[in-house]
Amino acid sequence: MYSEKVMDHFSNPRNMGEVPDANAVGQVGNPKCGDIMKMTMKIENGVIQDVKFKTFGCGAAVATSSMATELVKGKTIEEALQLTNAAVAEALDGLPPQKLHCSVLAEEAIKAALSDYYTRQGIDPVPIVGAGCDGCCDSCCSHH
Amino acid sequence: MSRFVYADHAATTALSDTALNAMLPYLKEEYGNPSSLYRFAGRAKAALEQARADVAACLNAKPEEIYFTSGGTESDNWALRGVAELRGKKGKHIITSAIEHHAVLHTAQYLEKQGFEVTYLPVDAQGRVSPADVEAALRPDTILVSIMAANNEIGTIQPIGEIGAIARRAGVLFHTDAVQAVGHIPVDVEAWNVDLLSLSGHKFHGPKGVGVLYMRKPLRLPPLIHGGGQEKGRRSGTENVAGAVGLAAALKEAAAGLETEAPRLCALRDRLIDGLLQIPKSRLTGPRDGRLPGSASFVFECIEGESILLRLDNAGICSSSGSACSSASLDPSHVLLAIGLPHEIAHGSVRLTLGRENTDADVDYLLETVPKVVAGLREMSPLWEG
C-alpha cells in the first residue's frame, strides 16, 4: 500500500525530536482526528538552520513529517513557504489517495512554525504565510 | 533475521493439511459437476453431501439445514435480506447490536433504506449485549434479532443461548453471525436457540471463499442468488465442492481438537495480556474472561494503531488495528467507540489474535517486541509526556 520511500521514512524517520533552542514552533492536527504534527525550528538570518518533528499519527503522517523536515532544512523561509503538500507526496513517491491529507498536514505544520516565527518577531504572519488551518477541518477529513 | 509471528488469526488462518488433502481430489480428478447424472459426477455429489453431514454434526444441526455459500458475508446478507423478504409483510422491525461485523451492519443499513426499522442495541464497556435489552427492544412488529456470537475486534463472547431463548419465546427469528466463534468455542444450534447461523471456512483453517448458512427447519428463506436451483433451489450456482469438502474437514478437525486447543490458546493469550498490560497507559479492550481463546486486543495511549501495526510488521509480526488510519473511513472502529472509548484512545488500538501454530516462543517474542514498538512510537509522539 505504501511506497518503499514512505516505509523508509516511517521506519527510519529523519529529524525526529525537538530542537532545544527553537525560535519557531508549530503544531497542527487534533488527537480526535488521529494525527498531530509538531515542528520545532531554529531560524537564523532567515535560514532554517535546524528543524525537528514529533508526530502522533499513521505511517503516512510520520513519513510526510520526516520528508517535510528534509525538504525545508537549510532552506530560507521564502523557500520553505513554497513547500506544497504535492511536493511532499511526490518526494515520497506518492501516497495512497486516502492518505493525501497527511501531506497537507505536513505543509500546514511547516507553515504553522513559520507563522509562529513571524509572530515572535512582532510581524503579522497572515499576509505572508496565510491563515493556515489546524489540519483537522471537515473538508480535509472527508478525504479519508 | 527477525522471527515471523502470524498473530492475525481473526483475519484469516492458514489452510490445514487435513483440509488441503481432503480438497485436492476435488480440485483435480474428481471435477464432476454435482448436478450431472452420470456416476463420475455422483462422486462429487456424494462428497458434497458428506461435507454437509459433517458440518451439521459439528453444529448439532441436521444436514438438510446446512446451505453452502461463498462465505460469511453472503451468509449474513442472505439471513437478513431473506428474513426481511419473507417476513416483511408481518413487520418491519429488526434488532441487532452496535458492534456487529459490517456484513450485518451494512446489510441492516441497506434494509433501513428499504423501509425497515433497525434497533442497534448498545453494549457495555466489555462489549456485551444485555439479554434484557433484547427483550425490552422487542415489538409486535419485530421480525428478526441478529446478534453476533463473538466479536472479531475485541473477542467478546455474547450470551447467545439466553438471547436465543428470548427471541424464541417471542416467536421472533434469531440469527447469529458466528464467523469468529465456530471452530473456536463450542457451537450448538439447539443450545443456542438459533434459527439462522453464519460461518466462514477460512476462520478455522479451512479455505477462503466458502461458508455456510444454517437454516432451522422448516424455515425456508427466499434465495439471494437465483439460477440453476442448486442447494434445493435456495442458493444457485455450481457448488464449490472442494471448498465445501475443505470447510467440513477443517471444521471436524477444529471441533475434535477444541478441548485441548482452546485451553492452550487461553493460556498463551492470558500470558500475552498480562505481559502487555505492564505497558504504562495500556488497556485491554473487551472482557478479561468470556473472550475468544486466541483474542488479545489493546489500546495504547498517545500513539496510533496503523503505526503500531507497521512497526510490528517491520519486526515480522502480523497484527491488525481498528484505528481510522488503517481503514478507509474517518472514524476509528465502531466497536471501540461502542464500548465507550474516546476517539483519541480508540486510534491507538492493536489486535493480536493467536492460533494453532503459535507457540510460547511466539508469545515471548510478542512480549519482547510490542513494548519496544510502543515505546519507540511514544518517543516520537507530541502527546507523550514520558
Short structural description:
The complex is a heterodimer of chains A (144) and B (386). In chain A, 44% of the residues lie in helices and 19% in strands.
Q: Could you characterize what this model shows?
A:
The complex is a heterodimer of chains A (144) and B (386). In chain A, helix 1 crosses helix 2 and helix 4 (85-91) crosses helix 5. Chain A has a three-stranded antiparallel beta sheet. Chain A has a single domain (4-141), classed as Alpha-Beta Complex (Sufe protein. Chain: A). Chain A has seven helices and three strands, in the order H-E-E-E-H-H-H-H-H-H. Chain A has 144 residues and is an alpha+beta fold. Chain B has helices at 17-27, 39-59, 72-87, 102-113, 131-137, 160-170, 241-276, 305-314, 334-338, 343-346, 360-380; strands spanning 5-6, 66-69, 93-97, 117-121, 142-146, 173-177, 196-200, 211-215, 282-284, 295-300, 317-318, 349-353. Chain B is built from eleven helices and twelve strands. In chain B, the strands form three sheets. In chain B, strands 2-8-7-6-5-3-4 form a seven-stranded mixed beta sheet, with helices on both faces. A three-stranded antiparallel beta sheet of chain B has the order 9-10-12. Chain B has a two-stranded parallel sheet with strand order 1-11. In chain B, 40% of the residues lie in helices and 13% in strands. Chain B folds into two domains: 5-13 and 258-380, Alpha-Beta Complex (Aspartate Aminotransferase, domain 1), CATH 3.90.1150; 17-253, Aspartate Aminotransferase, domain 2, CATH 3.40.640. With 386 residues, chain B is an alpha/beta fold. In chain B, helix 2 (39-59) packs parallel to helix 7. At the A-B interface, helix 1, strand 2, strand 3 and helix 2 of A face helix 8 of B.
